[in-house]
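Minutes, project huddle
Topic: does the predicted pose make sense with guanosine-5'-monophosphate bound?
PN asked that the exact inputs be recorded in the minutes so nobody has to dig through chat later. Recorded below.
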Amino acid sequence: DTFCREMPKIELHAHLNGSLSRSTMVSLQRYLADLGVKDKTNAFIEKFQMSSGDSKTLSDVFPLFKIAQELTSVPESLAMATAMTMQEFEEDGCCYIELRSTPRETSHMTHKQYIETIVQTMKNDKFSIIPCFIISINRSSPKNEVEMITDLAIEYHKKYPDLVVGIELSGNPAVGKFSHFLPALTRSREAGLKVTLHCGEIPNPQEVTEMLKFRPDRIGHGVCIHPNHGGNEEIWQLLCKSQIPVEVCLTSNVNTKSTLSYGSHHFKELYNANVPIVICTDDKGVFATSLSQEYRICAETIGIDPSKLVRLSLRACDYIFSDDKKKNVRDKILNFINKNAL
Ligand code: 5GP
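Predicted holo structure (C-alpha cells), as shared on screen:
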C-alpha cells in the first residue's frame, strides 16, 4: 500500500468530472449554496458512485457524470474542482497528470471560459504535480460543437503548447460514428495536438480498425480488441504491430462490467504481447479508486512485483504528450528506483 502510494506515478487518463471525490463534491455544493446558485445535485451525490456489486453497466455510467457537471457549471466551482482533483492526485503520489475534460456551455460560462478556467487553474504554481490538459470531444456532440471545440483546442494549444497538449474522443461508445470526427481530429493533429481515442470499449471491430489506422498517439481502454474479449485476431494483430500505447483502467472496466473480473482483464494479453500499457484511473470519483489503488490491484491480481510495477510507471514517461516535461518526470521515477534499489 505504502509502496504504491510513495512510488511516483503518471496519470494519463482521468476525466475531470468523473474524478471528483465525495469530499470535493460536498465542498462544491457548499460553495454553490453560499453563492446562491441553485444546483439539483443535493439528493444525488449518493448515486454518483458505481461499484462492481451493483447491476449497473457501461451505459449506466454516462448519466452519472451530469451530477458532477451540475457542480462545475460556474467558473469558480470548475476552478475549485480542478484544483482539488489535482491536489488529490498529488497526495496520492502522482507527479504528472494529463487531466481531460469536455468544454461545456452553461448558463454561467461559454466553452472558451470553460477552457480558460481550467488553463488558469493549472498555471497556478502552488502545485508540485505537473498538470497538462487534454480537451475532450463527446461522441454525442453535434458537428458545430465539435468544430468549435476543435478550434478552441488549436487556439489554446498555440497559446499554451506545454499545457494544452492533446485532444481526445470519449462519451457513450454506442452513440456516433468515428468517421464523423475524423476531420476535426486530423485538423487537431496537423496543428500539433496529440490525439487519444476511447477505443474498443464495446465490440465494434470495424471502428477499432478505423481508429487504429488513424494511428492515434494513444488509445483508452482497448477492451474488445483481443479475440478472447470480443475482438478478433485481425484487429489484435493490428494493435500489436502498431505499438500504440493503451491507457488501462482496471477498476473502471470491472465496475462497468466491460470486464468480468480483475483476473480476466485484458491487461494480461496486452502485457504478454508487449503492447505499451499505462495504468490509469478513468473516473476515480465514480469508481471510488485512486491511482495508487490501481497499481496495487495490478500487483495483487495480476501478479506484478514491485520492480516491474515501478518500471510500468517509468515506461509511461515515454507516452506522455508533453515532450517538454518528459525528462523531469522520468528523473523523479529514476530517483525512486535508485533510492529503493529496485
Ligand atoms: P468531463 O469531460 O465532463 O470532465 O468528464 C465526464 C465525461 O467524460 C463524460 O461525460 C464522458 O463523456 C467522458 N467519460 C468518462 N468516463 C468515460 C468512460 O469510461 N468511457 C467513455 N467513453 N467516456 C467517458
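Observations noted during the meeting:
- The chain has a mean pLDDT of 96.
- The two ends are 16 Å apart (CA to CA).
No decisions taken; revisit at the next huddle.
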